[in-house]
Amino acid sequence: MAGASGQKIVAVGPRHEMIGLRSVGVEVVALEVASSLEQVLREQAARPEVRLVLLSESVAEGVQKLVEDLRKATGTMIVLVPSHQGSRGTTMQWMKRAMEQSLGVDVISDK
Question: Which CATH number characterizes residue 78's domain?
């Protein structure tokens, strides 16, 4: 999806999960093999016109540090989105960690 200033939104994940986003102008980068995720994320975050990457939760396991590093280095927002099958809880775990880092306390858990 390109805005008036040429900025884009890119969705990264399995094709069957992301293809529907094309209908609203989001560029889809199909990723069927999680082993290529690091390369794909680096390439998309490095593109100056890409301001938002929607990353499927189904392929995001184990890349939180990479995502944090890319966010800091490039300014690109990388956001997890659940698949059509629902959330795996990864998004909430990442949010919990971010809140703990910024506030110093766990404000999300019920404990």
Answer: 3.40.50.10580
Count of structural domains, the chain: 1
Following DSSP, what letter does each residue of 14-48 receive, concatenated?
A: -HHHHGGGGGGT-EEEE---GGGHHHHHHHHHH-T
Q: How many residues appear in the chain?
A: 111
Dihedral angle computed from the Cα positions of residues 49, 50, 51 and 52, in that order, rounded to the nearest 10 degrees: 160
What is the C-alpha to C-alpha distance for residues 52 and 103, in angstroms, rounded to an integer?
A: 25
Each residue's pLDDT tens digit, 55-72:
998 888 788 889 889 988
